[in-house]
Amino acid sequence: MTVLKTSMRNFLAHKGRMALSAVAVLLSVAFVCGTLVFTDTMNTTFDKLFQATSSDVQVSAKGSSDTGETTSRTGKPPVLPASVVGKVREAQGVRSAEGTVFSTSVTVIDADKDKLSPTSGAPTIVGSWNGNDARTMEITSGTAPKGPDQVMVDADTAGKHDLKLGDEISVITAVGTHHARVSGIAAFKVTNPGAAIFYLDTETAQRTLVGRTGVYTDVNVMAARGVTDAQLKKNVTAALGHGYKVQTAKEVADANQKDVQSFLNVMKYAMLGFAGIAFLVGIFLIINTFSMLVAQRTREIGLLRAIGSSRKQVNRSVLVEALLLGVLGSVLGVGAGVGIAVGLMKLMGQMGMNLSTDDLTVAWTTPAIGLLLGVVVTVLAAYLPARRAGKVSPMAALRDAGAPADARAGAVRAVTGLLLTAGGGWCLYTAATADQAKTGSGWLGLGVVATLIGFVVIGPLLAAGLVRILGAVILRIFGPVGRMAERNALRNPRRTGATGAALMIGLALVACLSVVGSSMVASATDQLDKTVGTDFIIQGEQEYNLIKPQMVEKIKATPGLERVTEYKLLDASLTTPDGRVTKRETINAADATYVQDLRTKTVAGDLADAYEPDSMSVFEGFAKDHGIKLGSTVAVHFEDGRTAKLTVRAITSDEVVVDKGAMYASIATVAKYVPADRMPLDQLMFATAKDGQEAAAYKALKSALRDDPALTVRDQTDFKKALKDQIGQLLNMIYGLLALAIIVAVLGVVNTLALSVVERTREIGLMRAIGLSRRQLRRMIRLESVVIAVFGALLGLGLGMGWGATAQKLLALEGLKVLQIPWPTITGVFVGSAFVGLFAALIPAFRAGRMNVLNAIATD
Fold first, then answer.
1. Could you tell me which of 240, 273, 294, 356 has the fewest CB atoms within 10 Å of its CB?
2. What does the radius of gyration of the chain's CA atoms come to, in whole angstroms?
3. Residues 128, 237 share a domain
4. Is 229 in contact with 178 (CB distance < 8 Å)?
5. More reliable by pLDDT, 21 or 652
6. Are residues 831 and 701 in the same domain?
7. The total number of structural domains that make up the chain
8. pLDDT digit string (tens) for 620-659?
9. 633: buried, middle or exposed (CB in 10 Å: 19+, 13-18, 0-12)?
């Protein structure tokens, strides 16, 4: 009880200092809990949607995906004959069965040719209105579609695009373009996360999506009373045989959820990773806080020891304070985490993904994890200062000697840090000289961890040297005030090293990712300049936005073009000369002019020969693995066609970026073995303008593509800009997440300075008494803060650039050979660090300036 009372008294006596540390714990716990609540809520939303929209059993064509989405590269969904519906109805235990047809390989536009699709990346779905949809949706205005000129739209899409009854829309598919007017608007009875859904009557949907009637993509089956889904599936399978895909509602929901989960897991673990970084930075803050508080209470600890308190009791007292701090910060963090989750839901809503707070899910494990993490991390961080407090002898403390300096421990620390840093440097060197990216990535990971820990351990030694250099460059121009700021930073190198290390971690990651991102853009741009020999690239905004036949004709008819190249992807398995059968491979089928559009390096043969009849190319690695040489014959088993025996006429180099690992054949060759109705749509098209007509052809292509806004045309400048923007957006998102760690590091600088001011109260009073003005005092503290921040920035940026340069060496093995240091970003971060130091010093400097001189001198 005495230990608890002492801890409570000390905790409340330093509540301002504790508050800053609690904020660090709060932010870290909030990020973890917010991530968990957000992903749990998304799971709940999708679970409800999938459960509500699934029939008891669903029958699909054999070629359809588990989630029922269109997977065929022909742009048409896999279908089953209408006779299947009758067979299903005759199966035992079936209450009802209804055929439906839908597709996601569509583009829907309004009368102004603006695309009516989600901005969140969710699919656009066009399907037939059926009983299962009527069960899960409510028509809020108008009527369901009853003829070829009518279409019904979901309420969310209607609201986003201001669609009203009678508005004209067009559905663009592989079959053609269908025009209709909005006859009704229907709202989901559960939350629709963001898909845009359009309903046609069944016959119109069949003609529009498939090109013929009498077929369906799915059959929705409902069970009779008392029949389980599993039993119904068994009965339906028995009635149909094994030529179809039969799934229960749970299996469909699980397959859909698996797709969603893969996206959520990437987001979840990325955000948790950044929360972990924030926790790591927070550890430095907590260690510094308790180390300084222990140092300030040296005499108090001595008195406690003198009147009988044991080392364990002193140790326990400090740990109880840490426990109180951890509990307070974690409890507040859990609450803040729910707020972050709601904020993320609102943000996703702005991006087009609808998430309702009615589905907000806070599992009991979320606060439990938050509390456990916050408390454990805080107590562990306070353990070393607590142990140090317990070692203070009563007599040394009463003499105000404080914790004895341990020169031996400092030497051990320096040697350990040097060994870790040297070992990490060796790992990075090994990674940079590796022959394979997979092997090198393991060494890179070890090198990053070892050098990071090494720099943290060796921080005090680095601080003693670097701060002197920074003092000579930055602080000496401020005269005596600058020299005093330098000495203050050097007074406790361990503290300066720990404070700088907290800032170092976040900035090291920023520098590393900046180098990697810039190098990727520079390498890809270099490859484009060297290999791409066409003027324009036409492709869909999303991978599933294939180029439909009517658009192919428009592109080919565009004036001012010298040549147009089609480019398709086909799935096939290969039987190689060594007798092995490979799994699904991709054959890149293109017109013979593709060799002019892409200058691909070969290690054997001429790529133009691969476009001869019954010929192909393979890539270097595949050829080595299977003993393939020029003239070898490979049996290509096309999934949608017959088997072709093709002769290898070229072997392409693995040292490329564009189309790395591609196997080429001509479209004419492929067409001999794949029926026309199963031939994939074009994934890409390439166009080259006649000399001097580039600008006019570019404008004409853009005009032609207005009929399908899901397609874009880019010249090489556009393509490079799009690549740079994509990587830039990803980096900006990562920088935003790393800002959490940097905020915690700034709190650490504030806390260190604030406690340092309290620690030097008497000293500050004496300096003020002998003539130091308030302005000079504040400047001294600001300069001390700046030099600590710049010290952390130098360590972080230097370390991060080393990591980034090593990572680029591994990327070079994949063809990205250009190393580019983004000096504007590095310089901006470095200068920004100085401003961070100024900002962090504002409150401590202000409080120091307000200090009463006489009271400060009288402080014991």
1. 273
2. 34
3. yes
4. no
5. 652
6. no
7. 5
8. 999 999 999 999 999 999 988 899 999 999 999 988 778 8
9. middle
What single-letter amino acid sits at 613?
Answer: P
d(CA 745, CA 503): 5
Instruction: Identify the residue whose tokens are 């920035």.
Output: 793
Q: What is the DSSP letter of 822?
A: -
Cα-to-chain-centroid distance, residue 538? 27
Closest CA to 572 of 641, 659, 507, 627: 641
Q: Are residues 397 and 413 in the same domain?
A: no
Alpha helices (H) along 661-760: 667-671, 694-704, 716-759
Q: Read off the pLDDT band of 260 (50, 70, 90).
A: confident
Residues 791 and 645 placed together within one structural domain of the fold: no
User: CB neighbours (10 Å) of residue 717?
Assistant: 8
Picking from 355, 358, 333, the residue whose alpha carbon sits closest to that of residue 346 is 355
Which range, of 361-365, 701-705, 723-727, 818-822, averages the lowest pLDDT? 723-727
Pairing verdict, β 643-652 and 218-223: unpaired
**Is the predicted pLDDT of residue 300 greater than 70, yes or no?**
no
- Distance linking the first and last C-alpha atoms of the chain: 29
DSSP label at 79?
A: -
- CA dist 106 and 539 (Å) reads 15
Query: Exposed/middle/buried for 368, CB within 10 Å: 0-12, 13-18, 19+?
Result: exposed
Q: Is 321 helix (H, G, I), strand (E, B) or coil?
A: helix
Question: What six digits make up the tokens of 587?
Answer: 């054959």
Round to whole Å and give the CA distance between 287 and 499. Answer: 10
Structural element, H or E, at residue 97: strand 94-100
Own/partner long-range contacts of 300-309 (Cβ < 8 Å, ≥24 apart): 301/389, 301/392, 301/397, 302/392, 302/393, 302/394, 302/395, 302/396, 302/397, 302/398, 303/394, 303/397, 303/398, 304/6, 305/392, 305/393, 305/394, 305/397, 306/394, 306/398
Tokens 């709601």, residue located: 342
The confidence score (pLDDT) of residue 637 equals 94
> What tokens does 612 get?
């001869």
Q: Which domain holds residue 69?
A: 63-242
pLDDT (0 to 100) of residue 664: 95
**What is the total residue count of the chain?**
860
Distance CA(255)–CA(87), nearest Å, equals: 25
> Strand runs (DSSP E) across 495-632, as ranges?
536-540, 561-575, 585-590, 602-605, 615-619
Q: What is the pLDDT of residues 104-117, one digit of tens each?
A: 888 999 988 888 88
* Token pair listed for 666: 């001509």
Residue 860 has pLDDT above 70, yes or no: no
- Cα separation, 711 vs 470, in Å, equals 55
Give the integer Cα–Cα distance in Å for 67 and 252: 6
pLDDT digits (tens, 9 = 90+) for 755-784: 677 667 777 777 778 888 888 888 888 888
Cα separation, 670 vs 636, in Å, equals 10
Q: What's the pTM?
A: 0.79
Would you say 155 and 118 are in contact if contact means Cβ atoms under 8 Å apart? no
From residue 459, give the alpha-carbon distance in Å to each of 284, 467, 502, 754: 12, 11, 11, 21
Domain limit, last residue, from 692, 709, 726: 709
DSSP state of 30: H
Closest alpha carbon to 282 in 742, 812, 838: 742
pLDDT of residue 650: 94
Which residue type is seen at 418? Answer: L
> Does residue 437 form part of some domain?
yes
Domain final residue, candidates 675, 690, 709? 709
Q: How confident is the model at residue 141 (pLDDT cuts 50, 70, 90)?
A: very high
Helix, strand, coil percentages (3-state) for the chain, rounded to 5, are 60, 15, 25
Q: Name the strands in the sheet holding 244-248, side by side, starting at the edge strand that comes first in the sequence.
A: 94-100, 218-223, 57-61, 244-248
Q: Is residue 301 scored above 70 in pLDDT?
A: no
Q: CA-CA-CA-CA torsion for 814, 805, 598, 564, nearest 10 degrees?
A: 110
Asked if 554 and 566 sit in the same domain, the reply is yes
Q: What is the C-alpha separation between 301 and 322, in angstroms, rounded?
A: 17
Instruction: Specify the pLDDT at position 401.
Output: 44
